[in-house]
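User: Assemble these into one structure.

Assistant: Restating your components, then the assembled model:
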Amino acid sequence: MKECAQLAPLYEEFALGVLEGEERAELEAHLARACDVCTPGVARARGVVAQLAGLAPDAQPPASVKAKILRAATGSPAPTEAQKIPARRAVFPAWAWAAAAALALVTGYAVRQMQVLTSQLADLRRQMRIAENQNRALLDQIEIGRQVAAIVISPASKALKLMPTDTKMPMVVAYLHPQMGVALSAGQMPAVPSARTLQLWSVPKKGQPLSLAIFRPDAQGQVTIIAPVKMPMEEIALLAVTEEPAGGSPQPTSAPAWKAQVN
Amino acid sequence: MLLAVVQTWPEEDGPSDAALMARVLHRDSRALELLYDRYSRLVYSLVLRIAQQPASAEEIVQDVFLQIWRNAKRYQAARGPLGPWLFTVARNRALDFLRLKREKQRRREDPEDFSILPAAVASPDPEGALDQARRGEQVRAQMGSLPEAQRRAIELAFFEGMTHSEISAAMGEPLGTVKSWIRGGLLRLREVLGEGFA
């Protein structure tokens, strides 16, 4: 703790109310223990600082102020602890200012809380929409999986291996069912440029190839699709996959990247 | 150079403050009236300068003098003269009001116009007004001898209730500079004006 001599130059600043932090705390500690050097020192400093009141422009309070004070004083009995009631205010008393400020603070707090809650609610709604979409996607996947499983385990299905023309590409597996359609599955498929797509064709023994599906591998390079066959199985010569412009083509524009003989 | 010490406070014609406070303690309303006559003008001027609103200044003055009446026993003459205590109470009340007002204005909920009234009000007491004006002139003269920025820093502290940091921010000056200005200004004030109530 600082000595009184170190604090003495701060007395006026303390009385003025500008001191902050450690200096203020040090001096307050001295005053709290009724330091017999600092206490009268600060009292004298208050005398110095109070003289700054002389800088205020001269003003005379209305006579009514004096009358009110004397009326309140003479009308009030000797003060007791129980009677320490604030004086009645003529215009807008301090407690009303305090109440108004408190109300404003509470209102501000409530508005802020409402904004926070509204924002949280919006976040929750967004998360719910995302969850709903994920749920739908999951249900779709389950449904696709169920259909794929039904095609794969059906004795009527024909298993096909679509071999890549580029030997670095993975093989694609397909199960062809006369009624349920074709289930096609592959993994480790290369990414397809955004302006391009893969297209599955059924190539009949006679006539033009028929588009069965347009698809792209997912981010993990996985492909699982089900597509209708659109023609009798016995008429299909082969299944082929080509790379086409995004949106697909009415007819293949490139040589098959994968193909499998059906009949 | 040490200038002549100027007494800026009301002369104690008649009973001393301490004697009047002793009478107030015994519920002598005449003593309260004499104290009011002695100090109300300066207290009101100070409070009005801070609060900038006559109606509120009147209420604060009313509160301050009724506090003297109701809590006279809290005043301890041994701890210093009445004047600084009275002005400290009045200034603190006015600054509390000012802070509340600013908080309200900050929240854009203050419908009142605080700029419609002049700081000074015509006085029905020409002699008292002359004394008051003379005292004010003496303090202003001493403060006027300080550099503008130094004077401004002290006024921000006294009338606006700002701390060192707040003044530094308000004036855009380094904290150390502000501290130096205020400390130097107050020491000069003490040298020149004395302790006022001693």
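The longest strand of chain A covers residues 236-245.
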